[in-house]
Each structure stands twice: as structure tokens, then as C-alpha cells.
Design goal:
Number of helices: 23
Bound molecules: arginine
Largest sheet: 5 strands, parallel
Distance between the termini: 51 Å
Length: 588
């Protein structure tokens, strides 16, 4: 090994640190191949492995290389690796793997550092400075349904992961406040409840949607009127505008209640917000020769797509495509976002594919979708009921979100009462814990599998205290806290002693997993896959269980060290909960 130039860091992304070391080694080992990137991954046999030798061998063989086989390259990579405290030893294995064993002492020190300086020191660093996360985005006058709940939960976690990575996140609620439904609703209101009756009728907005939609579908004359109403609304007709504002306000209050319960922050910039930018946007497309007329409508044809983007309908109305293009223009130019992330159900994939392609065609986005500014569509699967069909209540109606959250909370409260917690805790404690567990269960169940898959909504499963559920994990956390508390030791004092020793195999395995937190968040965040974080959290609890069942903590000779390991586990667990939008509980 050669001496390290820079003083190595003890914090942050472990894998990145190894990549840096191997990069230095590769530059010395194969100076003629400067573009080779280190291939470092979690090891199958040891802690990590570097897989470059095999690929390098096929590149250099027969070109007068000094190496005789891949294993020789692997050996040279080891020889040229900068010496550092982090790596305990390296070995090579056929045909040319480099296996890395980390130093337990270094691992312990890194964990101690995190305990002293905070988990923020493990935050990933991303190259993006400003990102928009467009999520939740229900449609005014329609009830928010489980699909919007999924978007809200997933979008919030993505935003939290980015925020933790020091990205400025613009959390945008792109509510549907502008479509055909408003023409339909307003005309229906005016027809059924003329004059003063309108006000009161609006209060019951949800009840209006169904009958007005039925009329819209059945009565062509009404349909035409409704379509005209949309155009009048978009043209700022004062009467229509006032009614529309009232409709929006009522829905907004309904949503606010849900967001508050879920502790999700969002800033509403709905479809209508981008109206002032539409004319210039269309002008830009026009000047680039991209707008065509088709049956009285203005459209933009997109390479490889049969259906064009509809910019202006023949009646003069704008569409979902128009507002999305205007919003993108605004986000790129006014908000200077470098990454714009849209979270919707997979059913909208075609819309986003086409719209992204349109933006590339105009030249707003680079051709290469990895280069900034970039856009990503996070698509999630359908929420199904226990019967495997679309999630509905007993009356075959879409389940309102408030009811769903109520039910999760009630069930978790019942389970706590069954365990006689109502005798032990104050009513507030009982209520808060029931809420943390109930809502946490809903959120975790939503994200624990790859979100692109459909998922079956089952209260029994999500509220089970066994297996990969929020309940199980929250209990695991509470148990750790109670172990620390029972010791009667002051953890802040213990942190200062610097006594963490990872000499038992299960301590070491837990320590390694803790240190892999940073790279996991980075991967979950850059690949937009929240389930990676859930998997990490569940594995953490498994590692902890193994450690705890073999290593006595309280009153043992290694009590201080093991309490520190317990504390580090609790800290990392809490950060995972935080990123998943789940409130931790401290006692059970
Ligand atoms: N309102 C839409 C819906 O409920 C989702 C909007 C997503 N965001 C966007 N910029 N298109 O399906």
C-alpha cells in the first residue's frame, strides 16, 4: 500500500470513500486507462469488494501489458491502494476480485463521531441545488383518494431525502384547479341552485360532482354549456371566477386537514397558477415552428408519439398538457430548478413521456436525461383492496382519506388498549401513540415494496406487530430506548468517553450496517426508490436483534460500548423514520 495524500475523512458515505481510494490506486495501476471508474460494491464474502480487474484485463491483454492475468491486476490494485485507517486488510480472489475488510477500530470511531456531531454529518452530498417535487396534486372538487395519498406519502419522503441531502426543495401541490370539471360544476350549480342558493350548495361540493358528471355525460347540450363555461372561466369572467374561487377554497381546507394529519408540507401552485405564462410559452413554440393546427386546435407533434400535445383546444380552452408545459417553463426559468420530480400513478406514464419529449424537442431540456436540468416521473402502482380489486369501501365507493386514517388510528388504539396501555398512559399519550403507529403503518406499507408495483391495502397486515411493518419497527426503537433508560446512564456523558469497541461479530455487523446508512439514503434518493430505505431500516432492526440476543448490554463488562451502539442504532432508526415521515415512539 502507498501512503495516502489527503487526510481521510471519518464521516459520510463509506462506499464513496472506498471509491476514492480505489480511484487513486487505479490511476497508479493502469495509468494508460484514466477513464476507468472504480467498481466498488458491498462484498459477497468480505465487507466490500472492488471488481475492476476482470474488465481491465480484457482491455489491456495483448497490448504489451506487464500483467499476466486478471489476478495480477487485482494484486497490483491492492499494492497501490493508499494506506489508511479505514481499511484493515485486502485480499484477492479468483478470477480477480479485491476483497476489503474494514478496520473495526475505524468503524467504531466513525460511529462515535456521528454520535457526537449528529446524524447530519452522514448526509449525502448531491450535485443538485434546487429541486421541485410535484406531488399529492389532487383535483379540486373531487375527493382525494388513495392514489393521491400514495403520491403524498411518496412525494413527501422524496422531498425529505433531498432536504436531508442539503437540496433546496420546492414542494409543489399541482392541484387540478382548472379542468373541464369546473365548467361542469359551475354550470350545474347555476342551473340547480340559482342566486343565493349557490353559496350553500357549494359547501357540499363533493355531493355535486357525481350528479353534475352524470348530466355532463348524458346531456350533450349541458356538455356544450359546460365546455363554454371553462373557456369563460379561463378568460376570467368575474361571476364564474368568484364561484370557482369558492370551490377551490373549500377543497383546499379539506386537503389542509389531511396534510396536517400526515405532517406533510406542501405549497399550492395549481394548474391555474401558470396561466400568465401560457401565451409566451405558446409563442416560443410557435417561433420555433413547433405548433400546428389540427381541426381548429393548436397542437404540437412529438417524435415517436401518435397523439400530439394539445396546446389550445378548438374552443380556445387549455389542457393538462398546456399547463404542464407552462409549469415546466416556470420551474426551469423562474425557479431555476435543476431537477423536477413528478409523483403520480403509473397510469399517467404516457402523458409524462410525451410531455418530457416535447420539452426536449423545444430545447428546454438536454437530450441526455441524466444531465441537469432533468425531469423524472416517479410512477407508482394501483392501491388494491384485500380482495385484489381496486380499493373501495363496502358501498363500492372510493374510500375517503380521512376515513382511512381514522380507521388506522382507531385500530392501533384498540390494540394498545388491549395491551392495557390506557391504564398506564395519559389519554394524550395513548392518542399520540395510536396516531404515530396508525399513520406510520399506512405510510410504511405504501413504501416498503418497490413503489412501481401495485399494492394490497390491508389494515391487518400493516398493523401487525410482526414482520416488516412500521409497528414492529417502532416497537423495536422503543425497546432500544427503554434499554438505554434502564441502564440509568447519561448517554451524553458516555459519548464523550469514546469507548465503542466492535469486537463481537454481531457488534461489528451492526456497526457496518449503521455506517451504510449514508450510501443507502444517497441511492434511495438519487434513484427515487424509497423502498431501499425501508429495506435498510428493517435490516437494521434484524442486525440489532442479533446483536442484542448474543451480547448482554446492561450490567455487562462492555456496558458503555454496547449502550453507545444501542444509541447509534436508535439515532439512525429515528432518522429513517423521519425520512419516511413517521413519528417515532419512545415507549411501548
Ligand atoms: N392532478 C393530477 C391527478 O390527480 C396530478 C398532477 C400531477 N402533476 C403534474 N404536474 N401533472 O391525476
Amino acid at each position: 500500500m502507498v501512503a495516502a495524500k489527503e487526510e481521510e475523512e471519518t464521516m459520510g458515505n463509506l462506499k464513496q470513500q472506498l471509491i476514492k481510494l480505489f480511484d487513486a490506486s487505479l490511476k497508479l495501476t493502469v495509468p494508460d486507462e484514466p477513464s476507468v471508474k472504480p467498481l466498488v460494491e458491498v462484498g459477497k464474502f468480505e465487507d466490500y469488494q472492488c471488481n475492476n480487474a476482470m474488465g481491465l484485463w480484457s482491455k489491456v491483454k495483448g497490448k504489451g501489458t506487464q500483467f499476466t492475468r486478471p489476478l495480477a491486476i487485482a494484486q497490483a490494485i491492492v499494492t497501490n491502494l493508499p494506506t489508511c485507517d479505514m481499511v484493515e486488510s485486502c485480499s484477492v480472489a479468483q478470477p480477480g476480485y479485491v476483497n476489503v475488510v474494514l478496520s473495526a477500530k475505524w468503524m467504531a470511531k466513525s460511529i462515535e463521531n456521528m454520535l457526537i456531531n449528529g446524524i447530519e454529518t452522514w448526509a449525502p452530498t448531491l450535485s443538485v441545488k434546487i429541486a421541485v417535487v410535484d406531488f399529492s396534486s389532487p383535483n379540486i372538487a373531487k375527493k382525494m383518494h388513495v392514489g393521491h395519498l400514495r403520491s403524498t406519502i411518496i412525494g413527501d419522503t422524496i422531498a425529505r431525502m433531498l432536504e436531508y441531502s442539503n437540496v433546496e426543495v420546492l414542494r409543489r401541490n399541482h392541484v387540478g384547479d382548472w379542468g373541464t370539471q369546473f365548467g361542469m360544476l359551475i354550470e350545474y350549480l347555476f342551473e340547480k341552485f340559482p342566486d343565493s342558493a349557490t353559496e350553500t350548495a357549494i359547501e357540499n361540493i363533493q355531493a355535486l360532482y357525481k350528479p353534475s358528471k352524470m348530466k355532463f355525460d348524458a346531456d350533450p347540450e349541458f356538455k356544450q354549456k359546460a365546455q363554454k363555461a371553462v373557456v369563460r372561466l379561463q378568460g376570467e369572467d368575474p361571476v364564474y371566477h368568484k364561484t370557482w374561487e369558492k370551490l377551490c377554497e373549500i377543497s383546499r381546507n379539506d386537503y389542509a386537514e389531511i396534510y396536517q394529519r400526515l405532517q406533510v408540507e406542501l405549497e399550492e401552485k395549481g394548474e391555474s397558477y401558470y396561466k400568465p405564462y401560457i401565451a409566451d410559452m405558446i409563442e416560443e413554440l410557435n417561433s420555433k415552428g413547433l405548433v400546428e393546427e389540427s381541426d381548429g386546435a393548436q397542437v404540437m407533434f412529438i417524435k415517436d408519439f401518435k397523439t400530439p400535445c394539445m396546446l389550445v383546444k378548438s374552443d380556445g380552452g387549455f389542457t393538462y398538457d398546456t399547463t404542464d408545459l407552462a409549469a415546466l417553463w416556470y420551474r426551469l426559468n423562474k425557479e431555476e430548478a435543476e431537477w423536477i420530480i413528478y409523483v403520480t400513478d403509473a397510469g399517467q406514464q404516457e402523458h409524462f413521456d410525451r410531455f418530457f419529449k416535447a420539452a426536449r424537442q423545444v430545447g428546454w431540456l438536454p437530450e441526455n436525461d441524466e444531465t441537469c436540468p432533468r425531469v423524472s416521473h416517479v410512477k407508482f402502482g394501483v392501491v388494491k383492496g384485500e380482495d385484489g380489486k381496486r380499493f373501495r369501501n363496502r358501498d363500492r365507493e372510493i374510500v375517503p382519506l380521512a376515513d382511512l386514517l381514522d380507521e388506522a388510528k382507531t385500530r392501533s388504539k384498540d390494540a394498545l388498549i388491549e395491551r392495557a396501555k390506557d391504564k398506564e398512559w395519559t389519554p394524550e399519550e395513548l392518542d399520540q401513540t395510536a396516531e404515530a403507529i396508525g399513520y406510520g403503518a399506512v405510510k410504511y406499507a405504501d413504501m416498503k415494496k418497490n413503489i412501481s408495483t401495485d399494492y394490497r391495502f390491508s389494515y391487518d397486515e400493516m398493523l401487525s406487530d410482526k414482520g416488516n411493518t412500521a409497528v414492529y419497527l417502532l416497537y423495536a426503537h422503543a425497546r432500544i430506548c427503554s434499554i438505554i433508560q434502564k441502564s440509568g446512564k447519561d448517554i451524553d456523558e458516555l459519548k464523550k468517553t469514546g469507548n465503542l469497541v466492535l469486537d463481537h461479530a454481531n457488534e461489528r455487523a451492526l456497526g457496518l450496517h449503521l455506517l451504510q446508512f449514508a450510501e443507502t439514503v444517497e441511492e434511495a434518493c438519487t434513484k427515487l426508490l424509497p423502498h431501499l430505505l425501508c429495506e435498510y431500516l428493517y435490516d437494521l432492526s434484524e442486525h440489532y436483534t442479533k446483536f442484542y440476543s448474543t451480547c448482554q448490554v446492561n450490567c455487562s463488562a462492555k456496558e458503555t460500548s454496547r449502550l453507545l451502539l444501542c444509541e447509534a442504532t436508535a439515532v439512525v432508526m429515528r432518522k429513517c423514520f423521519h425520512l419516511l415521515g413517521i413519528t417515532p415512539v419512545y415507549k411501548i
